């Protein structure tokens, strides 16, 4: 018996994945992770599909990919870049994170950062390059994670088409779930190339925003201590 999501003779793999998401009533916005809905071999098939469609984009831009040696393999390079590098956090499962019990019952402020983050805005697919700081107030039930894991989790969240406000909220939700602290603070500062490269072409403006949870939201003294310890200078 044919599987209900088996492709038709000309059905692209993207349509098959999209149908699974719709049938499961799962959101698949630009900054969502859809790895749970990809079956073995489908990422490679998506790469072929994106390559073919990007060739069409180059043709519509009137670029001679047959004679121009610089662009003969551009469609393949772009497809690989999007699926396995720039937006890999959309298609890959979360990185493994080793968790340790809070054996010493640590309950003092911890700050991690600055963590370099790279993303692309979901409006224009232009780069977002910045820094991230994380503040934690653990409790006796918290799970402590290795220092490098904060960078790995940040990379997984940011390597999707994002807007900064939603990106740090996703990061905060992820860390609250992993660490279960009394309080969490996330601050991000970033340059947006959709402003620098196009539009107003302003290369001086940065965006800084924050998310505060738990004790960082309720205790203004703790919040002030955290913010005072951040090095926001270049």
* Largest beta sheet: strand ordering: 5-2-3-6-7
**Oligomer classification:** single chain
State the helical fraction.
Answer: 25-40%
Cα-based radius of gyration, to the nearest Å: 21 Å
Kindly name the structural category.
alpha+beta
What gross morphology would you assign?
A: globular
Residue runs with pLDDT of under 50 for 5 or more positions:
none
Content of β-strand: 15-25%
- Helices and strands, in N-to-C order? HHHHEEEEHEHEHEHH
Mean pLDDT: 91
**Total count of helical runs of at least 4 residues:** 9
Largest sheet, described in full? 5 strands, mixed
DSSP strand tally? 7
Which short descriptors sum up this protein?
234 residues, alpha+beta, five-stranded mixed sheet, two-stranded antiparallel sheet, 9 helices, 7 strands, 40% helix, globular
């Amino acid at each position: 018996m044919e599987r209900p999501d088996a492709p038709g003779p000309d059905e692209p793999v993207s349509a098959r994945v999209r149908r699974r998401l719709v049938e499961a009533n799962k959101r698949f916005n630009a900054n969502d992770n859809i790895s749970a809905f990809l079956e073995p071999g489908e990422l490679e098939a998506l790469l072929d599909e994106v390559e073919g469609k990007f060739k069409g984009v180059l043709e519509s831009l009137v670029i001679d990919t047959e004679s121009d040696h610089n662009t003969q393999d551009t469609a393949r390079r772009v497809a690989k870049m999007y699926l396995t590098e720039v937006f890999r956090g959309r298609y890959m499962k979360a990185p493994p994170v080793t968790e340790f019990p809070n054996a010493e019952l640590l309950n003092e402020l911890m700050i991690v950062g600055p963590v370099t983050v790279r993303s692309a805005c979901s409006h224009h697919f232009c780069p977002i390059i910045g820094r991230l700081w994380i503040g934690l107030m653990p409790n006796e039930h918290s799970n402590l994670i290795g220092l490098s894991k904060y960078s790995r989790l940040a990379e997984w969240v940011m390597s999707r088409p994002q807007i900064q406000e939603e990106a740090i909220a996703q990061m905060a939700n992820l860390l609250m779930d992993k660490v279960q602290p009394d309080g969490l603070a996330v601050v991000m500062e970033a340059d947006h190339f959709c402003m620098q490269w196009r539009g107003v072409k302003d290369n001086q403006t940065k965006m800084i925003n924050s998310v505060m949870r738990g004790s960082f939201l309720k205790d203004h003294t703790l919040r002030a201590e955290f913010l005072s310890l951040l090095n926001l200078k270049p």
